[in-house]
Amino acid sequence: MSDCLFCKIIAGEIPANKIFEDKDVFAFHDIGAQAPHHFLVIPKKHIATLNDADDTALIGKLALTASKIAKELGIADDGYRVVMNCNEDGGQTVYHIHLHCLGGRPLTWPPG
Ligand code: 5GP
Ligand code: ZN
Questions:
Q1: Domain spanning 5-103: which superfamily?
Q2: Centre of ligand 1 from the C-alpha of residue 83, in Å
Q3: Which atom in ligand 1 lies closest to the alpha carbon of residue 98?
């Protein structure tokens, strides 16, 4: 998608602090970090919202990639949170699905 911010990040047209990339997924630090560690894992394939997703393996890979990176960052044992916002009430602002992973501090529940 030519007008999608995250597609542009994947393409290298907009700079991002990349953590990991393979043929399916791309992970990078969130520009507005809400925790000492806050990164996003996105599919390389453009999917606007979770409602539009039908690739079970790809959606699962987002979570396992987050877990792998959390282990590498040293936050896995203390814990972290993964969340995907969907549409307006879910707080989604970028319409290319992304799994947030936050850690490095205790997180409260429920979210706002
Ligand atoms: P959403 O609200 O859609 O779940 O999350 C979008 C996230 O993308 C936000 O946490 C926001 O800080 C992050 N974000 C928005 N624009 C950029 C950008 O240009 N670069 C990076 N690295 N993150 C971004
Ligand atoms: Zn996109």
A1: HIT-like (3.30.428.10)
A2: 13
A3: 4
Whether the full predicted model's pTM is greater than 0.90, yes or no, is yes
DSSP character for 34?
Answer: S
CA of 108 to the centre of ligand 2 (A): 30
Could you tell me which residues are beta bridge partners of residue 18? 28
Give residue 2's pLDDT.
80
What burial class does residue 12 get, using C-beta atoms within 10 Å of its C-beta: 0-12 exposed, 13-18 middle, 19+ buried?
exposed
* Residue of minimum CA distance from atom 18 in ligand 1: 31
Domain regions of the chain by residue span = 5-103
**pLDDT tens, residue by residue, 64-95:** 999 999 999 999 999 999 999 999 999 999 99
